[in-house]
Amino acid sequence: MNPVTLKQIAEELNISVATVSKALKDYPDVSKKTKALVKELARTLNYKPNTFAVNLRTRESKTIGLVIPVIVHHFFSNVIKGIVAQAEKKGYLVIILQSNESYELEKKQIDLLLNQRVDGIIISLANGTADFTHLKHVLEMGKPLVMFDKIAKIVPCSKVVIDDRKAAYLATQHLIDTRCTRIAHFRGALLPQNSIDRFLGYKKALLDNGLPYDPSLVYICECDDRSFEEGQENARQLLKDHNDVDGIFINTDLVAIGAMTEFNKQGVNVPEDIAIVGFSNWFMSSVISPTLTTINQPGVQMGKAAFKRLYREIKAIKKNKPIAPKVITLETELIKRESTK
Amino acid sequence: MNPVTLKQIAEELNISVATVSKALKDYPDVSKKTKALVKELARTLNYKPNTFAVNLRTRESKTIGLVIPVIVHHFFSNVIKGIVAQAEKKGYLVIILQSNESYELEKKQIDLLLNQRVDGIIISLANGTADFTHLKHVLEMGKPLVMFDKIAKIVPCSKVVIDDRKAAYLATQHLIDTRCTRIAHFRGALLPQNSIDRFLGYKKALLDNGLPYDPSLVYICECDDRSFEEGQENARQLLKDHNDVDGIFINTDLVAIGAMTEFNKQGVNVPEDIAIVGFSNWFMSSVISPTLTTINQPGVQMGKAAFKRLYREIKAIKKNKPIAPKVITLETELIKRESTK
DNA sequence: AAAAGAATCGAAATGGTTTTCGAAATCACC
DNA sequence: GGTGATTTCGAAAACCATTTCGATTCTTTT
């Protein structure tokens, strides 16, 4: 019922609390005899150090914070999984908060985590975040910060990303290679860096191949919980606006699947009439018909990488050896399936 | 940089630490004058109580633990969202761990959380969990425990569930009402209570309507990350085994969608040849073609209810007014769509 | 003016662990 | 036996906030 303390062990053995503590941690200045006695009794009494006291003393909580825009999302839930798994390996626990794509909430969550005195924070920014003082605040407190996916280049912290621009370039190039000449783009919201980069990759691929860039072929979607419907709506609008588009590079798979559903409904054949490349390699992409060509975005891996980096920085700060921010870029690949020729 | 402490405020104002603490907490034995002074200085210095010290003193962490079989799952990620949101409202943070459907891991996670001295634990059991001593251990430590979805009836703790048996009965009845006479069932793994209950509801509906129960019409799937493929495989097998089945009640939407895909591939029409009812109301169910009739399983609501209950029990235990376990059953509904006539 | 009452404050213990530093005990060696 | 080196241990401070209880001051009443 009442947890065992060092004091109880000490009294039982008629030695001091200090010696018990040191015995359990294998300090060299405790004899083998007493070490054995202490350890034995600790085991039988099922002694577990009081985390609160340890935290207070060591000034660390062996806990990290994670702030993401949405939890119910295939990519983000994969990232969670990666972070939690990796953290557990190193004896860290993860507190998860959801910013709901709101800057205000994000600020509040960061505050909560700092108050909780987590050892570090991993974050993927809300779409609406344009001010970064709350993030700089984290760094000023001497806490490591790692951003992933939706990052802010301006914040001097480590980041885990994929080369969105390159991946988008590859995707668009693939459409061009399969004889598409008029290629549209369904892009994400305006602010997030990855949404911008994917757009730039798309544009560059067009120009590098001597194709004109036509802004009227770029459609925006918020990519929130209405993603599928946004895909349908954009597809509908596209068919109204342009009858000559033969390929689309779409910011994310769910939107792409929405678009494909709409095309299917309207008798537009994929890939014969319009070829489609998605982004993220959601598991449903390999399962619908036609299967969706897409860019693989390795969520679990990104989560693991983010924690690994955070862990290194936590250790570094502990040793007063601050570390320079590092941008870790994970490999992606184009996965060719039936939605392109 | 270095967080402000009560001591610093006290020295600045030439009063004692005790008075500062009491002033900030509006104790009646501090004059309005000093209260104002202290609060003013605390604000300008941006004082935040050291959580570690507060935890140690109050013996609570304002943190709860959550153990779920899988994070990357539409239902569970919805539950996470509900729990995290509700917890935040009450000033609680949530530590999430994944048991990976492994009993061994689940036991370890519980241990981790108890060591961390969380104020309570919410859990959905792994499929393989058949021994419950680790859960009873939580209760013996005087920590409240709430189970949801995959529960163990035998453990005397509060539970948040839906009436799986009734829901399954409704689903099957709906198939019968739409003139299905030979109805198969794709059930979940053998151990989980909800998988058993859904099977029993299916069976009872058949018998109540004078239809024979045929065990060969019941197919098992693990409902792990291969759910979609399991749906396809079971559908394939079903077509081989029986040519007279005209309806299926399927344990979960993703499996159902896999099955529908397979039927579609083989030229079997849904709902004309075979009608299908799924379970859980995954958002894709309303989006595929044909849209899937299903049972709504309110993940976010269940999460919220689970935390609310846990919160009540935490408060009760704090006041030494232990509370009797309660089973909270949330309402579900049959959502009729195109996959049934 | 004295006694009783109320208002205001602070010393100190508490929670449990970690770690420094000094003391005591043991051993080795001449 | 004395000197120095080595083991082995424990007192105590530190981490920081909370809370009890006693002490002091001020106000009121008789």
What is the third-level CATH name, the topology of the largest domain in chain A? Rossmann fold
- CATH superfamily membership of the largest domain in chain A: Response regulator
**Which blocks of ≥5 consecutive residues of chain A have pLDDT under 50?**
none
Radius of gyration of chain A: 26 Å
User: Could you say which overall geometry of chain A the principal axes of the C-alpha atoms support?
Assistant: elongated
Most extensive interface: pair and counts?
A-B, 47 and 46 residues
Please identify the structural class of chain A as seen in this structure: alpha/beta
> What is the level-2 CATH architecture name of the largest domain in chain A?
3-Layer(aba) Sandwich
Write down the CATH class of the largest domain in chain A: Alpha Beta
Biggest β-sheet description of chain A? 6 strands, parallel
**What percent of residues of chain A are in strands?**
5-15%
Strand order of the largest sheet of chain A: 2-1-3-4-5-11
Write down the oligomeric state.
Answer: homodimer
Mean pLDDT of chain A: 95
H/E topology pattern of chain A: HHHHEHEHEHEEHEHEHEHEEHEE
Number of domains of chain A: 3
Quantity of strands of chain A, as a count? 12
| Number of helices, counting only DSSP H or I runs of 4 residues or more of chain A | 12
Distance from first to last alpha carbon of chain A: 67 Å
